[in-house]
Amino acid sequence: MERLNGKTAVVTGAAAGIGKAIAVLFAEEGARVVASDINPDALDRVVREINENGGTAIGVVANVADQKDIDDMIGTAVREFASLDILVNNAGILDNFKTVGEADDALWDRVIAVNLTGPFKASRAAASVMEKQEKGGVIINNASIGGLFGVRGGAAYVTSKHGLLGLTKNMAATYGM
Predict the structure, then answer these.
(1) CATH 1.10.287.40 fits 8-175, yes or no
(2) Annotated catalytic, 175?
């Protein structure tokens, strides 16, 4: 099919689960994939799998909570493939259903940093590239049903996913058509 032929896609959280499935599918559809994850060994396996199956992928070990890592991830896509057409903000972590009373500051800060601030910073970096491209680009934020409804426990996670949905709506209103 190759619906993404010639496109460059950055996928965060690409070493396992949904992120891996997205990276593999995008490569099967012809995209050049910059797979990103905090786990270097698992990331290497995904990149190798994509390349061995005829796709094109490179890996960038990155913590989406770190601006330097985000800049390296986005910069690698542009340096290696001369464009950035798709950013998939998929990386995320859970909080083990900790309630407001149970969650400490460190847990709260980490979940918000990875699930909300990371996508904000990655989107900002990607938008600065995409705005300069004649063809623009697409940013996909992977949220959760937890972002639509409150659930028992999971205060930091649910808050981060509600925030991510708000960020997505804001970007759509600002940059979308």
Answers:
(1) no
(2) no
**Torsional sign, CA 99, 100, 103, 106:** positive
Predicted pLDDT at 149: 86
Classify 7 as helix, strand or coil.
Answer: coil
The torsion angle over the Cα atoms of residues 99, 100, 105 and 110, rounded to 10 degrees, is 50
What CA dihedral angle connects 74, 22, 28 and 7, to 10 degrees?
-30
Q: Which amino acid is located at 45 in the chain?
A: R
Q: Which of 157, 162, 167, 168 is catalytic?
A: 157
Helices (H), 63-154: 67-81, 105-112, 118-130
- What confidence tens digit (pLDDT) does each residue in 100-136 have? 999 999 999 999 999 999 999 999 999 999 999 999 9
